[in-house]
Design brief:
Structural class: alpha+beta
Shape: elongated
Radius of gyration: 24 Å
Distance between the termini: 73 Å
Number of helices: 16
Order of helices and strands: HHHHHHHHHHHHHEHHHEEE
Number of domains: 2
Length: about 375
């Protein structure tokens, strides 16, 4: 019994270190290479896919725990089922319900209301409300509920209600996740927080499943919880890396799409060089967001919009979507010493994932440079390269 308690304690310590380790890894990566940090947090990279797999596996393990609990205790384990459904929802939201994988165009509502122009619900919410909900989930599930369950009277009520709290032993990891999110020390911090939270739900699901797995095919692992945590963590990380590598492979290029993208980018370049469209240093936005936020309505009347007469679908023209139904982006980047300014428009290209850096169009991204020269000069046809 004492050996089992020690092993459970070691497993909890390791699980908390893994969650905090995501934060530490992000800090080291950013210090070593800001570009590597930036690219790691992009869509379809190992960070996002690790998050997806953490939540998906948590959903599956949670359902197994719910099924086992129903067999052992009877009743409907609604809480475990609800947490599993939440984990599945988060995983699918993370990949926009397969939009980038399949390249389909989301409904107009999401193109207009979702600042990411993707088929997901959480980005339709206001930023303040979305952050409040996430903080509530982190603290409520990871700290408040397990803390309340330490009172025997509350624990009995939760048991009658079929509510299964996260183990209090995981609270340090959830608190670290909350603090990291609250501090938000660097851009794209939220992407790392999502992986930490995914691990938190995964480890909580493992804890809910462990007591019920003694007579199952997982009995060997269940008897060694530290090994269980190590194995499942390695599995998640491995899947994330493999999935990211697969997503880097170029999908069907479709020459007609490439030709259309180049023609559309040339038209957008003419619009920016017309003098009617204004931009400034250190803007990096989807073109639709750029048009909306900075009142650049000329983009709806210029050469790009005029391509509708030559077959460009109006919905793509109105929302500045490339032939693969991903947004066109504008990047206006200036070096702090004033030695260089570069402005370019690009799309993610056939593989529908960003590969360009702050100063270069890379990978299979399809783009066009509007200006590359000294900071402070006007963007005119005479100054562009």
């Amino acid at each position: 019994m004492l050996d089992q308690r020690r092993d459970l304690k070691r497993a909890a310590i390791f699980a908390n270190l893994l969650m905090v380790g995501v934060w530490v890894y992000a800090a080291i990566l950013r210090r070593v290479s800001e570009d590597a940090y930036y690219l790691s947090a992009q869509e379809d990279e190992y960070l996002e896919w690790g998050t997806v797999w953490a939540f998906l596996i948590a959903a599956v393990i949670g359902l197994v725990a719910a099924w086992q609990r129903r067999r052992a205790e009877g009743g409907f384990p609604w809480f475990l089922c609800g947490v599993s459904l939440f984990c599945f929802f988060v995983a699918m939201e993370e990949i926009s319900w397969g939009q980038r994988l399949l390249g389909y165009r989301p409904p107009t509502y999401f193109l207009e209301k979702n600042f990411q122009q993707e088929l997901n619900v959480h980005n339709v919410m206001s930023t303040g409300f979305r952050k409040l909900v996430l903080k509530g989930i982190i603290l409520g599930y990871g700290l408040v509920l397990p803390a309340l369950a330490q009172w025997s009277s509350v624990r009995r009520v939760l048991a009658r209600l079929q509510v299964v709290p996260s183990p209090l032993a995981l609270a340090p990891g959830f608190v670290a996740t909350y603090v990291f999110y609250e501090l938000y020390p660097w851009s794209l911090t939220g992407e790392w927080v999502e992986l930490m939270l995914g691990f938190g739900f995964l480890f909580a699901a493992l804890a809910a499943c462990r007591p019920l797995a003694r007579n199952s095919k997982f009995a060997g692992l269940a008897a060694r919880p530290t090994l269980f945590v190590v194995t499942i963590t390695a599995f998640v990380i491995g899947l994330g890396v493999i999935q990211a590598a697969i997503s880097r492979q170029a999908r069907s290029v479709q020459p007609a799409y490439l030709e259309a993208a180049h023609a559309e980018l040339e038209a957008l370049k003419r619009d920016f060089l017309s003098g009617e469209v204004k931009t400034r240093c250190n803007r990096h936005r989807r073109l639709y967001t750029f048009k909306e936020k900075y009142d650049q309505d000329y983009l709806l009347r210029g050469d790009f919009a005029g391509l509708t007469a030559r077959g460009l679908p109006e919905e793509r023209a109105n929302f500045f979507l490339d032939p693969w139904n991903s947004p066109y982006w504008i990047r206006d980047r200036c070096k702090s010493d004033g030695s260089r300014r570069i402005v370019f428009i690009y799309s993610f290209g056939p593989n529908r994932r960003r590969e360009s850096s702050k100063y270069e169009i890379l990978g299979d991204d399809v783009g066009i440079i509007i200006y590359d020269g000294a900071k402070g000069r006007r963007l005119t046809s005479g100054s562009s390269q």
